[in-house]
Amino acid sequence: MLQDDASIAFLPAGREAELTAGAQMGDHAAFLELARQYVRPLYRLLYAMSLSEEGAAALTQEALARVWREMPEYPIGRRFFPWLLRIARSLPPAPSSSSAGGNRADPLLAAIDALRPDDRMTLALRVVGRLGYEEIAALLDVPVGVVILRMAQARNQLLAATAGLEGRTP
Amino acid sequence: MIHLTAEQLSTCLDGELGGTSEQLVRDHLAACEACSVLLRDLAGQDETLSTTLRSDPDDAFFDRITRTLEQTTRPVSQALPPGQLLPSQTVRPGSGSFPWGAALIIGTIACSIGTLQLGAEFVPRWLSESGRGERLLRAASGDVPGLDGGSTEPETPSAQTPEEAANVAAPAANVADIPAPAPAPATVAAPVLAAPAVPAPAAPAPVPAEQPKRAAGPRPGAILPWESVAPPPRVSAAEVLPGAPEDSPEDSKDAAPDSFMLVAPGAVGAVRLAQQRDEEAELHPSVYAYEVAAAAWERTLGLLHGDAYREARFRLAESRYLAWKIAPSGERAEEVSATVRAYLVSAPPGPDRGKASDWLLDVEGNRFR
Fold it and tell me: Global pTM?
C-alpha cells in the first residue's frame, strides 16, 4: 500500500527475487541493479539519521558494500530493502555535520539528535519516506502499535524541546 | 475535559485513524481548542521536519556512489585478463537463473556414457586424472576395485594432447586456460560410497615442467552430489606474504584432500563455491578476495559435519587470517581470533592445529603488543 508520492519505490517482488537470487550466486550486475534501485531511499534515510551529506553518502556506500559481501546470508523470500536497512543501521553511525560533540545551535536539530534512534528512524520513514504505518512496521519488523507509539513519542519530544511545551503522554 | 492522547493526535495527523476512532477524534477537535492548537503545531513541525530531514542531491551524486560501489565490489574474476577466467566465473554474470546444477549432472552423465561407449583412449583428461574414467571403464567390464575397498594402486594421468583437452565438452569453453590438476591420490578418487581407501603409496608422479600454483586443485564441474569434493591445496602464506613461514612437508601431507568426501548434496555447491573463491584469492590475493573466500566458507558450515566441518572451519580461519595479514585492523583481528578459536575448539591434534595456534598468537600478539 504505497502512497503515490512515496520516496521509496520498491521493485516488484518477482523482479526483486530474481535479482537477489542472482546476486546471491555472485551476479555482480544483479547486485548493482538492486543497489541503483535502493541507493536513493537508503541515502535519504541515513541523511535523516545523521543530517550529514558526506556521512550519509559514506554510510550508504559502506552499507551496500557490506550487503554485497553478505549476500550469501540473504534471507531468501524476504524483501531486500528491510534487510539492507537493517545492515545499514548496524553500522557505526556517521558523524553529524554540524554537531560538534552533540552541541547544535538550532534547538530543533539538537532535539532531533536527542531522539532515540528507533524513534528517529520511524519518524524519518514517515516524514521523509512517506510510508504508511503498516509499511513502516513491516520494514522495521515491529507491530503497528509500536510505530504509533514511536511516532507520537518523537513528535511530542520535538515539540516539547522546541516550543517549551510539556508534551502530553498517556 | 479529557484531551486527546499524543498517539491519537499523531495518528490523526498521519491520517491513519480509521472509522469510529477518526469520527470521535474529529468531534473532539471541533469542541477542544487546546487539542486543535496542538494538532496545528504538530502539523507545522512536520512541515519543518520534512525539509530539515530531507536531502535531495542530484543524479550525479548517486551516480558517484554507485560507480564507486561498482569498483569496490567488483568480483575478482572481472579483474582477470581475458582468457584466464575460471569456468565458474565466466558464466556467472547475468546468469543467476540458469539451472547450473542440472547442466552439471547432464554434462557428467553425457561424459560417462561417452566414456563407456568409446573406450579408454577417449576418456577425458579430467576424468582419467581423477581416476573416475578408469573406474567407469572397469565398472563396465565388471572389474571395479574401488567398490570393494578402494584402489591402492597409484594412478597416473593418461597422456593427452592439448587438442584433445580442447575437445572436452565439460566443464567450460575456456577449460584449456585452467591449470591442469596434478594426479589425484587414490583416496580422492574413491567412488561413491566406497569403503575407506588405503592411502596410495608414494609413487613418483610425472610433474609438468611448469606447474602452476595450486594445480592439484579440484576440477570444477567434476563434482556430483555424494561424490568426493576435494579441497584445493592450501593457500601457503609464504606464497602471498613475504616473510611468512613456509609450510612444512607435514603440512602438505596433512592437506590430503579427503575431508570433503561424501558431503551431502546440498553442500556440494557451497563447498565448490568456497573452493573457487579460495583459488581466486590465491590467484589475486587481496583483502577483498580473502574476505569473499571467508564468507563462502562460512556459508558451508551449516551444511557440513565431522571432518568436512572442521576442514571448512580451518579454511575460514585461514582466509580471515590472510586478509588480516594484508590489512591488519582491530576489527579484523577480532574476527580472526574468534574464527581461529572456534576452529581450535574441535580441532584434532596435528599440523593444522599448530598452524591455527600460530595464527592466534600472531594476531593477538600484534593486537595487544
Answer: 0.47
